Amino acid sequence: MMKRLLFLSLFASAVYAQAVGSQTTNTLQGVLFDAGCKDRSALNLSSPPETLSAAKPAETAAESQAKAKNTGAVSSHGINVDAKTIAAERADVLPHQVADLRTRQADPTCALTGSTVGYSLLLDDGRILNLDEGGNTMANEAVVLSKEGRAMLNGSGYGFKPRVRVVGRVRGDRVIVERLAFL
């Protein structure tokens, strides 16, 4: 009976220690990225952020064909459109594609963009840790206060992946953040 009670006591304390997690504060360094990103492969996370051309949207095959002919007209599947009509249509469509709208689109390399609401940390050893809600708030404040973040949010910059120092407690795959700062 006494052995069983001792075993249960030890088991309960182990479960409690695991539930409470590490009480020691750790200082972690790594790259901050969008937690909502679907491709968390090492290759994708280590890739630089994509930059989109702010001048105009990508050309279609028909537009590049017309450009090669240097006539300005576009032909596709038997339909011909003259250069004047294309210019008028483009002038109507392009004002809606403002720079800050493009920077609010998710980045395929998991860079921080205007649509980022949750943050994760890629450590130097390759581990990925998610930030808790308080850490997400601190990361969002750091993004807004940074030069790159302001440029990205006002449409004159692109997504970015800043290096950060995080002080907090690790619990499983989550960091309970006490402090967060860009390096």
What tags apply to this protein structure?
183 residues, alpha+beta, 2 domains, 5-stranded mixed beta barrel, two-stranded antiparallel ribbon, elongated
Structure in a nutshell:
With 183 residues, the protein is an alpha+beta fold.
Can you tell me about this structure?
By secondary structure, the protein is an alpha+beta fold. It has 2 domains: 22-52 and 99-182, no CATH class; 61-96, no CATH class. It is built from 7 helices and 7 strands; from the N terminus they run H-E-H-H-E-E-H-H-E-E-H-H-E-E. It has helices spanning 2-20, 42-46, 61-69, 83-93, 99-103, 133-145, 147-153, and strands spanning 26-34, 74-76, 79-81, 119-123, 128-131, 163-171, 174-182. A 5-stranded mixed beta barrel has the order 1-4-5-7-6. Strands 2-3 form a two-stranded antiparallel ribbon. The protein is elongated.
Mean pLDDT: 80
Low-pLDDT stretches: none
The percent range for strand residues is 15-25%
Q: Specify the helix fraction band.
A: 25-40%
As a whole number of angstroms, the C-alpha radius of gyration is: 25 Å
Number of alpha- plus pi-helical segments? 7
Provide the domain count: 2
Choose one word for the global shape: elongated
Spatial strand arrangement across the major sheet: 1-4-5-7-6
- Care to count the β-strands? 7
Termini Cα gap: 57 Å
Structural class: alpha+beta
- H/E series: HEHHEEHHEEHHEE
Main sheet properties: 5 strands, mixed, barrel
